[in-house]
Each structure stands twice: as C-alpha cells, then as structure tokens.
Amino acid sequence: MRLIAVAGCFILLVLLFTGCQEKRRDAELSKYVAYSNRDSAQLELNLFESRFHGKLRFYRPGGEIDSGEIQGNIKKDTLAGDYYYIPFGWGQKKRRPFVLLKKGSQYILGTGTEQVYMGIPHYIPSTISFQQAKYVFTASAY
C-alpha cells in the first residue's frame, strides 16, 4: 500500500513539475559587428520574449580588449540592461548600464547619464540618446 502511495506522489510531482516549467521558445544566437574609426566591437545576442543576454567585446588599437556579458529586458525596440565586463588592464569586473535600439536589422548603442541605485547601474531615462552613436551593429558571421 505504501509503495502505491509513494509511486502516486512521485507521478504527481513529476506532472506538477513539468506542467509548471516556463515555456520558452528556443533563442538563436545572432552575431553583430560595429566599427568606429580604429575601434571595433563584436556583439553576440540571444533574444527571448522579454529578456536578452549575450557577450560584448570592444577592441581598441594596441591590443586593448574590454570583454564581458550583457543581460536585460526588451521593451518594444529597446534592449536595456547592464554590461558586466573586465576592462583592459584591470583586475576586477565592472558593471555599467547598457542600451541598444533596434532599427531595421541594425542595433544602435545608446548613451546617457549613468546613475547607480541600490548597487544597480542604469541610465536616467530622460538622458538616453541614440544620436551620434559611436557603434552601429550590423549582422555578421564572425
């Protein structure tokens, strides 16, 4: 009798667990590249319904590379989150705000006034600008 009750509880837990899992569509890794004078940047991006994550690398003359991860939320055509990276020649990781605007098949890296609230960096919304962007990412196969 106990064996039947244990088996029934196990089956119930398995059904409950599989029924409560979040349904996600598979994200496809997209790669982008941008150039600005002698600098360049590579972006790897995974998009989900309302979230994104990926990797971002900035290359500057002299072999300087800033490399790290990005993550955040998607709101309409804007991706806003943070960039957690290791600056060239620096031993510790830093976190900075990060914002992209999707325009057609390109992504424009935005800027703004940075603010830290409860340890979380972000741009003050009224200061975010995509005008005169240093980096405009286009699809690549790098």
Strand order of the largest sheet: 1-2-3-4-5-6-7-10
The structural domain count equals: 1
SS-based class: mainly beta
Q: Which runs of at least 5 residues are low in confidence (pLDDT < 50)?
A: 5-10, 12-16, 18-24
Q: What is the approximate shape?
A: globular
Largest sheet, if any? 8 strands, antiparallel, barrel
Q: What would the average pLDDT be, to the nearest integer?
A: 85
**Number of contiguous helices:** 1
Helical content class: 10-25%
Write down the Rg.
21 Å
H/E element sequence = HEEEEEEEEEE
Q: Find the count of extended strands (DSSP E, 2+ residues).
A: 10
Distance between the termini: 62 Å
- Beta strand %: over 45%
Please tell me about this protein's structure.
- The chain has 142 residues and is mostly beta strands.
- The protein has one domain (30-139).
- The protein contains 1 helix and 10 strands; from the N terminus they run H-E-E-E-E-E-E-E-E-E-E.
- The chain has one helix at 2-20, and strands at residues 30-36, 39-47, 51-60, 64-75, 78-86, 94-103, 106-109, 114-117, 120-123, 136-139.
- Strands 1-2-3-4-5-6-7-10 form an 8-stranded antiparallel β-barrel.
- A hairpin with a 2-residue loop joins strand 4 (64-75) and strand 5 (78-86).
- The longest helix is centred in the N-terminal third of the chain and has 19 residues, at 2-20.
- It is globular.
- The N and C termini lie far apart (62 Å).
